[in-house]
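User: For my dataset I need records formatted as: sequence, then structure tokens, nothing else. Please produce one.
Assistant:
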Amino acid sequence: MPDADEVRAAVRTLIRWTGDNPDREGLVDTPDRVMRSYREMYAGYDVDPREYLERTFEEVGGYDELIVLKDIRFVSVCEHHMLPVIGKAHVAYLPTDRVVGISKLARVVRGYARRLQIQEKMTAEIARAIQEVLQPQGVGVVIEAEHSCMTLRGVNAPGTSLTTSHLIGVIRDDARTREEFLRFVRG
């Protein structure tokens, strides 16, 4: 792992590569700022998002319907261009005999988002983690996001977004349950 001095030197090199002067007043502290920003943006490498799901509650009063947490805002970074991906995730599961605190679902999304990512992989990682740890009857994850690598450069298509989904178990296999999940997401 590079040390702090190597990171600062790399940022200074990028500043010079853009044609600017890293010793200019407004840029002198930029290497430290970038280092702190990256530490936060890539905090997902410091956690195992699956661990958030380990504390569950069995006293559910017989609840056996879909649990859907919508509009979980996230910021990720495209692994191909290292530009922001900004979006929202919708996560659902059909519990078997236990539930997890809803903030834990948002933490799982953030844990996977705070890495260099592609949206398709992130969608599948979130769904598989919930399935493997909670072992519900089914899991559904839909992610909608705007990719800066498409909207700020390249094709320059502002306002476009990508939607991905990963469905497991009854949410994939049972048409009524799948439609209920998608209706919640759309609604």
